């Protein structure tokens, strides 16, 4: 069972409140690992989005993360274009990839018309197929580090897609917040790690290889349970030769359920 187990998640403390609560309630010990920093493309992202809405005239806006919502709307507020952005988004049918993204949109006064049952690119594709959106136009404001999978999937369905890249990501620079984890990891006292994105996988290895050579790092990783939040994260882990278990539900709570299942049978 989970009592006394040390379980890390590749998110900052602010972004892992739900995970910390779940782990703590199960008498285990959570560790937050801030792996990535968002590097905004600046105030121009709002004008680029608004111009795209005007010129492209999309039927749907699809938001793939709460971070994209927050960054876009917070930037609009800074340059006094919040109402204009709000109206532009509201004039499309809005789809949120999952509940956290839906809440972020609703907090900005945006009505969310659609949310897939599976909180992933595959779920978005399935939902567009279900609502017969062939020939429609979609705008997707998201990370510049995103894979082309969603765009290619929707285009195969017959949907026209325009992506707006709001930000890039880089490895977290203040790794003093990793001290507790690094000490426990060096003593093989970390029992599990939940990876929450492909970007966080790349950043994790960029940070950890400052302390470890590749072979030592891989050897230590074999001594703990690795959970990926979804298939793209799993694929990225495989590139680093890390065996992992994919969460069936691609959310933090879904990943935690996978953690519980793993430790209930070990």
In CATH, the topology of the largest domain is named Rossmann fold
User: In sequence order, what are the helices and strands, one letter per element?
Assistant: EHEEHEHHEHHEHEHEHHEHEH
* Helix content, binned percent: 40-55%
Quaternary organization: single chain
Top-tier CATH class of the largest domain = Alpha Beta
Work out the number of β strands. 10
Mind telling me the C-alpha Rg? 19 Å
How many domains make up the 3D coordinates?
Answer: 2
Catalogue the unreliable spans. Answer: none
Strand order of the largest sheet: 2-1-8-9-10
Strand content: 15-25%
For the record, the CATH architecture of the largest domain stands as 3-Layer(aba) Sandwich
How many helix segments?
12
Q: What structural category characterises the helix and strand content?
A: alpha/beta
Integer average pLDDT: 94
Shape: globular
Characterize the largest beta sheet: strand count, sense, and whether it forms a barrel.
5 strands, parallel
Task: Quote the distance from N terminus to C terminus.
Answer: 8 Å
GO molecular function: uroporphyrinogen-III synthase activity
InterPro entries: 4pyrrol_syn_uPrphyn_synt_sf, 4pyrrol_synth_uPrphyn_synth, UROS/Hem4
Domain Tetrapyrrole biosynthesis uroporphyrinogen III synthase: 20-256
Protein name: Uroporphyrinogen III synthase HEM4
């Amino acid at each position: 069972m989970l009592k006394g187990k040390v379980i890390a998640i590749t998110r900052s403390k602010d972004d892992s409140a739900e995970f910390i609560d779940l782990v703590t309630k199960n008498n285990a010990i959570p560790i937050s690992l801030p792996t990535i920093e968002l590097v905004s493309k600046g105030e121009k992202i709002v004008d680029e989005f608004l111009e795209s809405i005007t010129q492209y005239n999309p039927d749907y806006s699809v938001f793939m993360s709460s971070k994209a919502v927050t960054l876009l709307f917070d930037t609009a507020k800074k340059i006094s274009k919040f109402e204009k952005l709000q109206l532009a988004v509201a004039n499309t049918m809005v789809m949120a990839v999952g509940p956290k993204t839906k809440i972020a949109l609703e907090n900005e006064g945006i009505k969310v018309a659609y949310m897939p049952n599976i909180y992933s690119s595959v779920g978005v594709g399935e939902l567009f197929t279900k609502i017969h959106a062939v020939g429609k136009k979609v705008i997707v404001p998201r990370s510049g580090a995103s894979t082309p999978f969603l765009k290619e999937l929707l285009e195969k369905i017959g949907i026209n897609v325009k992506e707006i890249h709001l930000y890039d990501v880089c490895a977290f620079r203040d790794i003093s917040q990793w001290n507790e984890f690094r000490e426990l990891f060096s003593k093989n006292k970390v029992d599990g790690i939940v990876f929450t994105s492909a970007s966080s996988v790349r950043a994790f290895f960029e940070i950890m290889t400052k302390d470890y050579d590749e072979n030592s790092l891989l050897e230590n990783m074999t001594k703990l349970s690795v959970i990926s939040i979804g298939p793209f994260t799993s694929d990225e882990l495989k590139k680093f030769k890390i065996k992992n278990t994919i969460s069936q539900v691609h959310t933090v709570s879904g990943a935690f359920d996978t953690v519980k299942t793993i430790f209930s049978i070990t």
